[in-house]
Structures are given as C-alpha cells and as structure tokens.
Amino acid sequence: MEDFDIIVVGGGHAGVEAAYAASKMGFNVGLFTINLDTIGRMPCSPSIGGLGKSHLVKEIDALGGLMAEVADSTAIQYRILNTKKGPAVRATRTQNDRRLYEMTIKSRLEMQEGIFLRQSRVDKIVVKDGKVRGILDNTGTFYKTKVAIITAGTFLSGTIHVGEKRIPAGRAGEEGAYKLSRSLKLLSLTTGRHKTGTPPRLNKETIELAELKRQDPDEDYMPLGFSSSISSLPQIPCYITQTSSLTHTLIRDNITSSPLYSGAITGKPARYCPSLEDKVMRFGDRGGHQVIIEPEGLNTKEVYASGLGNSMPIELQWEIVRSVPGLEKAEIMRPAYAIEYDYVHPTQLRATLQTKRIQGLYLAGQVNGTSGYEEAAAQGIMAGINAALQLKSAKPFVLDRSQAYIGVMIDDLTTKGTSEPYRIFTSRAEYRLMLRETNAVFRLSKYAARLGLISKKRYNNIKEIQNQIESTKSYISRTYIVIPRDIQRMRTRYTNQDTQASEKITIERFLKRPSAKGGQIQDLIKNKLIQKIHPLAAFEVEVETKYEGYIKRQQRQIKRFKDLEGFVLPQDIDYNNIAGLSNELKDRLNKIRPKTLGQASCIEGMTPAGLQAIQIGIKFSTP
User: Fold this and answer.
1) Of 210, 247, 344, 618, which residue is the least packed, with the fewest Cβ within 10 Å?
2) What's this model's pTM, rounded to 2 decimal places?
C-alpha cells in the first residue's frame, strides 16, 4: 500500500495545522480521518480567538499556519475584548460561518502540495524496536511511515452522555476511535479521562430576539492573519440573555438526572468552563447566568446557545431552554450533551511533543489533555514542524516561555501535566507584556522564514514594518510639539490638564502621559505630526513608548530566565540523591527529567531553594 513520510491521524484543528506545516517543509503527509467532510469542524462554539486564545491564533499565523487566515475569510463578526485593560491582555475574537470555515480548511488542504487526504479509521500504531513503523486502519491495511502524529481529539474511547443515555461516539453522529485508544495504552502510555460538552443549537426564528440585548460587531479591528484582508462577509450581531430562577429550580429539582451528579461521568471537567448544572449547583447565589445566542452561519437558522451546555435528558432540556427569557418558544434543533474521552498524560512528552518512550510518535491537541480549537491548532503546528525536522535530522524547534504563548502552553503540559482540560489564559504567561497578540508576527516570523513556512516576500514586508516601528520611535523622541496648539483637534481624547498651559515637549513624552489615552498615534498621524505608517506599527510604537519602563523590567526578568535555561541538567542524574529536595519534588523531577534548570523551575511545587539544591547537588556530583 501507500507509504508516507508522515501520517497525521485526525482531521481536527491540530491535525490540519500539523499536516499543513509538515507539507510546507517538503514532506508527503497522509492525513487520515474518519470522515473527510468534517475536516476542520468546529464541534462546539462557532468562533475563533478570545482571551488568551487570540495570542495563540496570531502565533500560529506568524508560523505560517492556516487558522487565522481562514477565520478572517469566514468571519461574520469581530469583537475586540479587554479594550479597557492593558495591551498585554487585549484579544480579538471572531464569530464564524461554521460550514464555510470547514469547507475552506478542506479546500486549502486539497490545494496544498504534499498533503494526501484519506478517509479511514486508524486502529493501531505499529511500533518496532521503540520506533514508529506505520499504522493499521480498520480494514487491516498497513501504511508505512517513520512518523505518526496523533490528533484524535475527543474520539479516543469517546462516550456521549444525555441523561441516562450512553452513546459510544467521538462526536454527535460520528463513530469513536476505541482500538486506537487501546493501541496507545499497549504502547505503555498512561492515560486519563476528561469530560467536555456542548450546548443546544436552537432555531433562530423561534427566539424573541427583540427581548434580548443585542451585541453588535466591532468596526475598529485588525484581522487575525497578517496577510488577511478585511472580511467581505456581512457582519451580524449576537444576542444576550440570562437564565432565570425557574431555570435554576428545574436543574436543582432534577439534578440526579444529570450524569455529572449521578456518578455516570467519571472524567474530569474543566473548572473554567462549567456546565449549566455546575453553575447552578456551585454558584446558587447568583440570580442568573449569561446566555449568548451566537450565529452558526449566514445561511442557516441554527444558533449556538452559549451558556446552556448541559447533559440533562432531552425532555428536560426543552424545559430548561424555555425557562430562559426570550427563549420561551425556542425549538431545539440539536440537543446539548456531555462527552467523555481518553487523553494521554502530557508529562510523557518531550517539548517537541514527541513521546519520550517511542521515537517518531507525536501527540497534539485534546489527546494531550487540552481544550479548545486554538490550543489544539498551536500544538498541531509545533508537532508538524518538529516531525519534519526529525526526518531532516535537524535541530528541534522549541519555543520557551519568554518567546510565545505556545511555549508557555507546551511547557505547562510537559512539565506540570494537567488534571483537567487545559486552557490557555494570559495569567499563565509570566512575560505577557512581551507576548502581546499584536507583536506575535514580529516575535516569530524569523523562525518561520528560516523553516520555510512563510514566503520571502511576506518576511520582507514584516521587516519593513519593524523598520517603521524603529524609525517612528526615533522620530517621536526628537520631535517636539506645543500643547495645546498641536492637539486642539484631539481635545476630547485628553484631560484639561493637557490643554490649559502652553508647553513644548517631545511626542514621546506626550505619549507617556497617563492622560493620553489609546489611539493617540493615529490622531497624531491625522494631524500630520507623524508620517503615515502601518496600523500594526502605530499600535506597537504606542505600546512600546507608553510601557517602556515595564517592558525593560520584563526584559531583565527574561534575562534571568534565559540564564536558568542555559543551565543544562544531566539526563542521568538521580534526584533522590540530592539533599534539600522534598520527596514530592524528587519524584516529579525523576519522572519529567527536565532538560534545563529553567524547565525545572516551572515544575509544580518548585521553589528557589529547590533550584539552588539542584545546582549544588550537580556541582558536587560532577567529577
């Protein structure tokens, strides 16, 4: 049968990015999925990005990935989140036409040279002498490869729960991958069980939208993708309501009907994204919980009822939905459900996402215990890149915590593991002021260019914008303006203290004033006090000027972190012999085997005293 350089198992967001990256690096990639019509599917929310997540999307884009550009081309709403907070936590979120998104993803893969789409269920990873040799599908056909990337999502021994009903499935209406899960366990990979879910889809025409709060799209936004154009699709609103006291009574009175509370579900759910049952039982003092009606697309009546995710019996779901103001006559087109599935404990992986035990076996996405399209896609692109580099016998590509949110996530997974579905947050990144969504393209494009993931023309365009940033920073440091004369047309953006006494100062000093609000660079350009520059450059100049002191402090922190990263740890060291470490730390260090002191510093429970003990122990144990 067919031979492939790399085989990707699974056509979700992780598998898509893995296959796309590896093919661009010159390898033939077989992408195997149970159903070719569901490649790139959004099985839950029809949206991309959001708090923390848009940082990942823009990093994927900087590395030449697909997600951002496809999100932009299928966006039917843009929203900018956290605009009243600092630039480090600002985030972009799109609502997308679900069907158009998956069709576009599939089309991009079909057009990409080196990707071969195959509809087939993979049942076994064939390993010999600790190395991947190929895969077996459900027909018993063998496909030879040296590298396999498993991106099976919720399909590994998936079980759907709706009330007392148990349905073996990977997603609603799709078969699961049970033999593949057993195959991974037979390879001595330790697995756990996680739980997630999805809310009901409702018929928009049966909702009293006039009774709901309308949430219109933002007009002032930048696309997620660097090379994207503004979406040509109509931009449409979402609608907001909230649960009622009747909703909560229905759930409390019938809580034993929920498999979450009956004991039927054993998988660990995510605390940060609780089901409606959990919200009511854990936060019973709240009068209501937000429900957002999100469009599923431009050519469908289906809408996504975010906030109503549950695993109650279907007849009870109808009562719950109709207890929500504005939804009294709503029809459920697809019921909500919970799903349990197997995942592999990610501490068994290297930072490249290759398993420590088996050469050529990579894991990416929910199989590593994560949750979310963006987290999956980010792992997928890194697994694809490193699989290709392995075949080239080249140095692995690993991003550290100071370089990218991707580095934060993978480091968290491989050093700390996760007992619940992992989701990225800006709070997880120690150096988040340096890891803004708007500077991702400047942080990572040099690596993408070196790896052959982006074109030379694109990279030159990025470097030109970087030159604009530096030249503009130089210009504003030596160019003076007179206040209030030069800002008369901008008075509404500044406080009276800037418009009373005449004062001559540099533009740089003016931008650093607390009274100068966001968007001042654009105002200065309009007043012809600064030459016209790229919007991304304008934003970065403003941020780097206003937060210069904080940025310099974070750069010093990164320098200290890099020093720790430069301290390489012997891989044969027995941490049991190092005095000053707790037994718990010894066990974790022996299990994870960190490569550097920096990686060791991120292990759960590590302290400065523990790091010092390791350094001393190595010093006195080295001949």
Assistant:
1) 210
2) 0.92
